[in-house]
Structures are given as structure tokens and as C-alpha cells.
Amino acid sequence: MKRNIIFLLVCLSLLAGCKDLMVPEIENNRNLNSGNYPANDAALPFGILLNGYNRIPTNSWSFNDVATDDAVTNDQSNGFLKMANGQWTANNNPLSQWTNAYAAIQYLNIILRDVDTVHWVSDPVVSKLFAMRIKGEAAGLRALFYYHLLQAHAGMSESGAVLGVPIITEVQGSNTDFNKPRATFEACMKQIYSDLSTADQLLPLDYENIVNAALIPAKYGAVSLEQYNRAFGAAFRGFLTGRIAKAIRSKAALLAASPAFSTGNTTTWADAADYAGEVLSLKGGVSALASNGLTWYANAAEIAGLADGANPTEILWRNNYGDNRDLEQANYPPGLFGNGRINPTQNLVDAFPMANGMPIGSAGSGYDATNPYTGRDPRLRMFILVNGGTAGPNNTVINTAADGGTNDGLNIVGTSTRTGYYLRKLLRQDVNLNPNSTNNQRHYKPHIRYTEIFLNYAEAANEAWGPLGAGKYGISAYDVIKAIRKRAGVGTTNGDAYLEEAKGNKDQMRDLIRNERRIELCFEGFRFWDLRRWKVNLGETARGVSIKNNVPAVMNVETRQFQPFMAYGPIPYGEILKFGALEQNKGWR
User: Fold this and answer.
1) Domain tally, the chain
2) In this structure, which long-range contacts are made by residues 479-485, counting pairs with CB atoms below 8 Å and at least 24 apart in sequence?
3) Cystine design at 431: which of 231, 328, 394, 518 (Cβ 3.0–4.6 Å)?
């Protein structure tokens, strides 16, 4: 015992004499509040910018669809399932962006404060170009995070005002007053537009190497070809550009013009259409809709040939690609060694029209309820694995019937489908999960697809000018929807009679556009946000199909427990407790 005490005292003495082993000296800590960086070290400030990129929310792969009428999940621990079943509260919010977005904004505010003081490279001209670029990127990213904050947390106050979130454009330090009230939705939109304007002014349309100095934009002054390409060349593909800033503006304006947020803000449907139209005109208009855009996630040769940062025709902005099999492991049916997590609903299946373009409930559509998957929109079997459909590297036939005799059938084991359907979209069918011959394939996640922008335009243009109004970019909602349906192989045998009927009725065209958006963007994280911004019913019961003796019977699978006030998400409960100036959205506690 005595020996142990002596040993302990010796250790404490040694540690006391070597305090630098335990506590770093001040000069080893970089104080981000100081704004002072080593003269030849741009890595730290660039790392601060990258923190913003790393926090970008990715709609795809979140699968918040399971909180909507499009899907359920067999994973009973899923946060979105619990949310849909009545456990969505201000302190239990799987959709919250508060912590992530404000952390990103703090880092972006630091770089915006310090960008002009950093010695980016030795060439002073190129260093100035780098400063312009990084300032533009940071401003554009800040706008993107405010968009996500509005989408998740903007809402109606008790007095009926549409509120946004606190606007923070300065670096917050130890002496900052954090008790800030929420700005109006309109003020937040003005901040977003201002930041995106800054980004657009400072950034090139795209990062590409220029071969002719005459093509250098005048805003960068008298710089050489080498200097321009060093700051704005192809090496920076994947970072935020002027084109991306324009697309973010389209997304934000569509949110602002929508019924849930249009009261008290000045963004109109015409504005939203024009912002999307500018992006589409730069792309080449309706004729530039990517012919293979439906299968962007599975175009094997195209994906394999992607250079770093380069985009396929369908993609406006994406993250880095990686080789893995995570999606397939989660969502292949159990017969293909998957966990069958995301189960599309009968509700979504019914949204797919017939191949002739007619809704399945329309007279003369040709729909046969006893043979429900025949003669349908080709996108149905492309996106959803139905009974008798094929999947996996060997095109295995999957039997989802309740009496099918395999684990792929309805509710057989914990990884079986709960609806009679499995996810097919987003999955690479050339992934093999067989333990004896597993393989990975390349995947990437899009931040923005051009099809989204086309659909943004169609929705806004129809609301602003009706189905045939072309606006200043000469594109109508009808033009866009016709191109999208033609690409899908819908209505090609009868001149798409249903679309031709809808073009004479704004309300009918609205329903058609919303349905096309539902189909084209399914499982990419849009449905929940769309239902809320449209202020339509969140509580539709999720349905499935039980097939016995080859006879399909529609059944209820999961009721939704959403209240009307949940058209708007809550401010985090912890923030309300800490800061008295914050007002909660109406209905939340």
C-alpha cells in the first residue's frame, strides 16, 4: 500500500513538471476569432470553407419519404417512421437543420470576414482571384443553408405572421448576444437573394479551363490565361459556381412563392419561373432535357467515365462519387441478401398513369385492377419492384405475394416488405450481395438535378401564366411536362391526350405537374417538403397490397399522425428554452 502511494506521488510530480504534455501551449491553438493566419498557410482558412461544404444536407438517401404517403419502412427504429406515427415534437425532430446549418453559417461567416486578409498564393493577382472565388462560394453556401433553415423551421407565429429564422451574418464570439429574435420570412429571403447575387457576381458560370484569353469574363480584369485557369479552372469542378447559385435561387423562390409561405413576402410565381427559366436557358431549353436522365443513378458507362467533379448531362451539382453497396444492402429484398428497408406504397403506385398517359381512375384508361402492373407508365417498374418484377445482377424474379413462399413476400420476416413493394430506384442492379461473390459499384448523390429545375419551372409558370404561358424565356409549363412525359415513354401512342386536355385548364395542369414531380423525384427527399409547402394533407394513410392466389387486395399499412399545424416544422425546444427572444411556430410546444 505504501509503495503504491509513493508511486502515485512520483507520477503526479512528473506530470506537474511536464504540463505541456497535458495542456497545449497557447501558440499551438489557432484562434478562429482572431482572423490572423500564418503568412504562407492558406490550408486553415480553406479548411474552414470546406466545413461548409461538408455540412450540405443531401435530400437523396435521407428517405424522409417514409413520413409521407409514398413509403413506409420495415426498420422500426427509423426516426421518420416514429415522426409519422405521432412522435414528432420540438425536441424530437429528425428533420431539424438548426444545429447543422448554424454551425456551417458560423464557419462561413469566419471565412467571409477573413477572406481578403489571407495570403492565398504567392502571385498577388491569383491570390486576389482566389479571394473573389472563395468569397463567392462562402456567400452562396450561406444562402443554401438559410434556404434549408427556412424549409425546415420557417412558419406561422401566433399572430399570423410568417416568420423565418434569426439572420446571423457576423462571426459569433464569447461576447455575442445570442438571444436574437426570428426575422420575417421576407427578410430571410432578401438575405438569401443578396448572398446569391454576391456569389453570381464573383464566380464564373462553371469551372473550366479557358483556352482563349478573350473568353475571360471582364469582371476579373486584366489577368492572363494561366492566372485565370489557376483560380477558376477545371481543377475546382464540384465547388459552388454561378450556375449553382442561380439554381439555388430557383429552389428558394419556389419555396417562397408556395401557398405555405406566400403571405407577406414579395417573391411571386413569376419570379420563381424566371429564376428557373434562366437556368434552363443556359442549359439549352426544353430540348436539353437529358434523354437518359431517368436512370442517372444506374447509367453504368456514364458513371464509370466521370472525371472528378464533372457532371453527367442530367446533373447540375453533385457530391463526390464512391464505390460501395450500402444502398443495395439496405434496400434489396431479402432474397437478394438485402434488408428491404424502404417499401413504396400503393398510394405511390397508383400515382403512376397508364402508358397512354391516362390516370388509372380515368374512364378509358385501360387499367385492369386484376392485372394492375400491365400497360403502365414505364417508370413504375423502373422505380418500384412490383410482384413478378426482376432485380439484382441476375435479373431474379421477386415474388412479393403474401402466399409466395419466400422471404420476399409480404410480412414474412423482419426484412420483408410491409406494402407488397420494394425500392428499385437509386439502386445499382449490378451490385451482388451474395456473400460468395459480393461486389461494389460507383454511386454519387446529386445536390441538384436538372429535372428538378424543369419541374420548378413548370409549377411556377403554370401558376403565373397558365399552362401555355411562355414567359420571357419562351418556355411553357405544357412544354416542360410534354418533354418529361415523352422521355418516360408516356402518351407516345395517342398524342398524350390527357396532357392535351390539361393544357386548357390551369387547375388540372397543376394536379398533373404535382403528380409528375411526385413520380420523377420519388425517393429523392422531395415529397415531404412539397406536401408541406403546398399545404395539402400530410395524413393520408399509407396503403399496400396483399396478393393471395394471384388476387391483389389493397390494404391499410400505416396511419399518419400529423396535425394541421405541422405544415410548418418547429424551432428546437432547447433553443426556445435558452433564448426568450425566439418565438415558436404556432401549434408547437
Assistant:
1) 3
2) 479/286, 480/286, 480/454, 480/455, 481/509, 481/512, 481/513, 481/516, 483/286, 483/287, 483/289, 483/454, 484/289, 484/451, 484/454, 484/455, 484/516, 484/520, 485/357, 485/516
3) 328
